[in-house]
C-alpha cells in the first residue's frame, strides 16, 4: 500500500528540471506523478517513478541529492466532492497530511492522489476501514 517517493533537491536555475528528466529518460525510467515546490534559490522535485531504486541510483551517479520517503496513493472519486469525502476519512485519525499531489493518470473511474502523512502504518488500515481505496505498490509504479 505504500510507495517510495523520490525527493530531488535542485538549484533554481534554467535547465535543471530538464537535466533530471533527461537522466531518468536515458535510463528508461517513467515518471508516474510529480510535484515541484520552489523558493528563489532551490526547489524540491518529488517523483513517483516506475523503478525508484534505479532512479535514485541514476540521479546519485549524476551528483543529485536524492532522498526517499514513503507515501500512499489513494483512489479519489473523480466527481465534485470526491476529494472532500476522502479527506473527511482523515478526520479523527490523529494522522497529519504533510502534503499531497495528484497522479498524472486515473485508476478506472477514480483520480489518484498521493498523500505524505506522518504515520502511514497507522493511516492505511483506518482509511481502508472507511472504504477509501488504496493502490498497491504495483499499481502505483505501473
CATH topology of the largest domain: VC0802-like
The quaternary state of the protein chains shown equals single chain
Q: What ranges have pLDDT less than 50 throughout 5 or more consecutive residues?
A: none
Cα radius of gyration in angstroms: 16 Å
Any idea of the CATH class of the largest domain? Answer: Alpha Beta
Q: N-to-C SSE series?
A: EHEEHEHEEHH
Largest β sheet strand count, sense and barrel closure? 6 strands, antiparallel
**CATH architecture title of the largest domain:** 2-Layer Sandwich
Mean pLDDT across the residues is 87
CATH superfamily of the largest domain: VC0802-like
Shape: elongated
| Helix/strand class | alpha+beta
Beta-strand residue fraction? 35-45%
Write the layout of secondary structure elements.
Elements: E1 2-11, H1 16-26, E2 31-38, E3 42-49, H2 52-61, E4 65-77, H3 82-90, E5 97-107, E6 110-117, H4 120-129, H5 137-141
Antiparallel strand pairs: 1-3, 1-4, 2-3, 4-6, 5-6
Amino acid at each position: 500500500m505504500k510507495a517510495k517517493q523520490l525527493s530531488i533537491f535542485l538549484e533554481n536555475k534554467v535547465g535543471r528540471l530538464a537535466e533530471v528528466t533527461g537522466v531518468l529518460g536515458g535510463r528508461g525510467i517513467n515518471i508516474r506523478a510529480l510535484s515541484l515546490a520552489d523558493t528563489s534559490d532551490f526547489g524540491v522535485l518529488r517523483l513517483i517513478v516506475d523503478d525508484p531504486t534505479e532512479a535514485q541510483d541514476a540521479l546519485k551517479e549524476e551528483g543529485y541529492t536524492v532522498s526517499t520517503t514513503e507515501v500512499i496513493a489513494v483512489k479519489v472519486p473523480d466527481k465534485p466532492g470526491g476529494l472532500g469525502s476522502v479527506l473527511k476519512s482523515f478526520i479523527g485519525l490523529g494522522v497529519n497530511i504533510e502534503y499531497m499531489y495528484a497522479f498524472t493518470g486515473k485508476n478506472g473511474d477514480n483520480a489518484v492522489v498521493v498523500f505524505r502523512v506522518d504515520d502511514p502504518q497507522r493511516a492505511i488500515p483506518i482509511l481502508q476501514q472507511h472504504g477509501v481505496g488504496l493502490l498497491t505498490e504495483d499499481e502505483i509504479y505501473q
